[in-house]
Amino acid sequence: MHHQVSELFKGAEELRIYLLENNEVSFLSFADENFRKLFVVASASALEAEICQTLLAFAHKNLSEKHVLVHFIQRKAIERQYHTWFDWRSANVNSFLGLFGDNFKKFASNRISNDEILIASCRAFLELGLLRNRLVHDDFSSFTLEKTTHEIYKLFSSACTFAETLRIMLDEFIEN
């Protein structure tokens, strides 16, 4: 997940440097404005894919691949449902955690609340998701994105911690 987005960021940086070195300021401005939007969507999409894959892998691990619930979970709980799982305007992921039941929500909330990096990661994750939704639903071409490419990349890098920790928390919860 992180590799593809990092490569996209690297390519944008190389293009920015090239345009600066060749005094192509108007092309730089145009490329930067559009790339930042693309980068938000690409980053949020990578996180979506990672979290969906985590949940599907968790179902496979805890049920057999042939179990009918795995297919039900994939088709009715995961596919095209991701954006309904989160309260994107919230400062935390509690609504998402609650979808796994009160016991998991309490377990995961305690883990998150005791880890400043994870708290920041959850906020970055939600901010990226909200930005993606605003871009997609509020007229992509005229949307004004206030963040720089570096700020977006920083949000993405931080948000990856939440996506990675979710997998760990699910496994730890089942093992205990």
What does this structure look like?
The chain is mainly alpha-helical and 176 residues long. It has one domain. 77% of the residues lie in helices and 0% in strands. The model has no long low-confidence stretch (mean pLDDT 93).
Q: Mean pLDDT score, rounded?
A: 93
Any idea how many domains? Answer: 1
> How many strands in all?
0
Helix and strand run: HHHHHHH
Counting helices, strands and paired strands, the structural category is mainly alpha
Beta-sheet strand percentage? under 5%
Give the end-to-end Cα distance, rounded to a whole number of Å.
Answer: 28 Å
- Unreliable sequence segments: none
Q: How many helices does DSSP assign? A: 7
What helical percentage do the residues reach? over 70%
CA-based shape: elongated
Properties at a glance:
mainly alpha; 7 helices; 77% helix
Write the layout of secondary structure elements.
Layout: H1 2-21, H2 25-62, H3 68-78, H4 94-98, H5 102-113, H6 116-137, H7 149-175
Helix pairs in contact: 1-2, 1-7, 2-3, 2-6, 2-7, 5-7, 6-7
Explain briefly what this protein structure is.
This protein is mostly helical and 176 residues long. It has 7 helices and no strands. The model has no long low-confidence stretch (mean pLDDT 93).
